[in-house]
């Protein structure tokens, strides 16, 4: 049985030294490039868990696929035996252990799968064709999708270890021009562009089903990514606004335009989507007359990713231009792409943001504070939404105005409230007389941030001497 009331004392010196350790912080960094070649790299995808980034860079041998993890340097993946040296890293499995793309092999290109244990292996070519490229892979790495030249033309394929490479287009068509760009988590849903220039959604049951295009367009659309369960699809389409506009598709709403960044030519393209379909990333054109990475959600619409990182997460991106956001982790907190670094070189990058803060109700007492008062503690009651357990509040993370740590924390699970005590003297040092809105922030043990505000009256009355 749970204890209904928990009293937890903390020493203030420990609080201040530990707060930074427990705080969830955002970060941004360039990924560098492979040694030996030109200074250049681009990132195309990130694993579902956010641990691994894949893309291309120039090495001493030529353009080469890379795999990057936070625990190690950028690793070149090599190339299939070839007369020329070239490979690309297009997609990665959920845990980062399988990479897919294309590699030059002699006089042609071949889709490959790379694993930690087996290295790079070719996946074959459709019958009658001469080349293939892989663009997407399932979370477990067992399903790969892409395009291959066949006897009928460019043809979308789905590859499995047991079945090999299979065409996804209608077998009755004599000529095809289509490709598969991505697959859902379990590989059962495939998306891309079908013959006739229309985005499609494929399943074993339905085959290729066209998704149409945005109103006012000229009948062109292409799907680039799909949510984990296959229900949300994103990409680009012609529209009444421009020749290329980002879209988000669901069965209930159909294809919905996501707009464009302010200023400049009207061009945008969605490149990837979070597991639940709520966050979309890609590129758009803005007043800078160049492509810029965007992030989209239903509440905020399309925003410049760089501005969000700088304004909402206080990150310093001086000198960087983020051209394209190409991948996003399942939880929507890790984003990768490429852009110009402060030295003017194209470089892959990764941005990690913190979970959106949940709103909490707080009540600060006393609600009238005299700056002339001496000593004592200020009490703040914190009520979390019902879905969260108050015992999960990280005591070391609770701060008033982002700088004053709690003297002690008390959890009352029965009343679903956390009580924090703050030093009155510390508060008085940062307050001015008047109506003052105070903010209390903190984190749960899983890193979820919370924040709440309350208004108190601050006075500056000196007691009269007798």
3D architecture notes:
- The chain is mostly beta strands.
- It folds into two domains: 121 residues, Sandwich (Immunoglobulin-like); 326 residues, Methylamine Dehydrogenase, Chain H, CATH 2.130.10.
- 5% of the residues lie in helices and 50% in strands.
- It is built from three helices and 40 strands.
- The strands form nine sheets. Strands 31, 33, 35, 36, 39 and 40 form a six-stranded mixed β-sheet that branches.
- A hairpin with a 7-residue loop joins strand 21 and strand 22.
- It is elongated.
Overall pLDDT confidence: 91
Structural class: mainly beta
Spatial separation of the terminal alpha carbons: 57 Å
Tally of contiguous helical segments: 3
Number of domains: 2
Low-confidence stretches: 1-24
| Number of beta-strand segments | 40
Shape: elongated
The CATH homologous superfamily of the largest domain is termed YVTN repeat-like/Quinoprotein amine dehydrogenase
What is the CATH architecture term of the largest domain? Answer: 7 Propeller
Seen as an oligomer or otherwise, the chain set is single chain
Largest sheet geometry: 6 strands, mixed
Rounded to the nearest angstrom, the radius of gyration is 27 Å
CATH fold-level label of the largest domain: Methylamine Dehydrogenase, Chain H
Name of the CATH first level of the largest domain: Mainly Beta
Strand residues, percent: over 45%
Helix content: under 10%
Write the layout of secondary structure elements.
Blueprint: E1 5-9, H1 12-22, E2 27-30, E3 36-46, E4 52-59, E5 63-69, E6 72-76, E7 87-92, E8 98-105, E9 108-115, E10 119-122, E11 132-137, E12 143-150, E13 153-160, E14 164-167, E15 176-177, E16 179-183, E17 190-194, E18 198-203, E19 207-210, E20 221-226, E21 233-237, E22 245-250, E23 254-257, E24 268-273, E25 280-285, E26 291-297, E27 301-304, H2 305-313, E28 321-328, E29 334-340, E30 346-352, E31 358-359, E32 361-365, E33 368-370, E34 377-383, E35 399-400, E36 404-405, E37 408-412, E38 417-423, H3 424-428, E39 434-443, E40 449-459
Parallel strand pairs: 13-15, 31-40, 33-40
Antiparallel strand pairs: 1-37, 2-30, 3-4, 4-5, 5-6, 7-8, 8-9, 9-10, 11-12, 12-13, 13-14, 16-17, 17-18, 18-19, 20-21, 21-22, 22-23, 24-25, 25-26, 26-27, 28-29, 29-30, 32-34, 34-38, 35-36, 35-39, 37-38, 39-40
